[in-house]
Each structure stands twice: as structure tokens, then as C-alpha cells.
Amino acid sequence: MATTITLTRDGRGKYTATNSRGRTIKVGSGDDSDDFGPIELLLAALAGCSALDVDFITSRRSEASEFTVTARGTKVRGEDGNRMTNVSVTFNVQFPEGPDGDAAREVLPQSVQMSHDRLCTVGRTIQLPTPVEMHAE
Q1: CB distance 30 to 36 below 8 Å
Q2: Strand partners, 112
Q3: Is 114 exposed, middle or buried (0-12, 13-18, 19+ CB in 10 A)?
């Protein structure tokens, strides 16, 4: 399944990303209060991808009373170019007391690991060598 995002320039360093369903998000350097920077978008995609995996697995047992996912990373400049290091995703998920909550708590660590190891397309793409082609038309 191919996915496409179209990025349209709104001004110097300001863009609107539009998906195939017509939804938009503002993209820029991240210095402005109304846009997301590229690194923030990468971290949001990583956190969002894993959150979906974990939520789908755990919510079959119990709805979470709290569900927060934090993605962090450090941008570095090196001999091989700019990149991110120390990328981590932390889940803070709480479930209500009772057997359903107990069942969800029991599968939480496994669901996080499954997302990391094989389910999260964004995380797997970052971890595995993935060629990226760029073209000017």
C-alpha cells in the first residue's frame, strides 16, 4: 500500500503537508508556535505508530485510564551527516483495577516489544537500512 504526502510551500520555511484524504498539518522549522519541525514529525510518527499497536492490543482487554507516549531523540551533526541518536519511546499506560485491567497490564510489556520488533512500520523503517530516493523534476 503506497502512501503519499504532498508538501506545498506557504512561504520561506513554511509548508502545508496534505495527505490523500485532504487532511493538513503545518510544517516548518519548529520555531513557530503553529508548526511542527521535521524531527518533531518523525518522533510523532514513531510514537503514533507504536501507540496504535499497543492500544489495539491492550484495549481488547481493558480501556486505558491513562495513555501517554513520549518520543525523544537527539539531533547530531557528524562526519556522516545529520541524524538522530538516543531515540527512545516511553509508554505511560494505566488501566483500571480488576481482572480486565490486570489482563491489559499483563500484555502491555509484550505489546510494546511486539511493536518494536515487528509491528510499527515507522520504527522498523528507522531501524532497518531503508534506501531513500530523491529527485528534482
Answers
A1: yes
A2: none
A3: middle
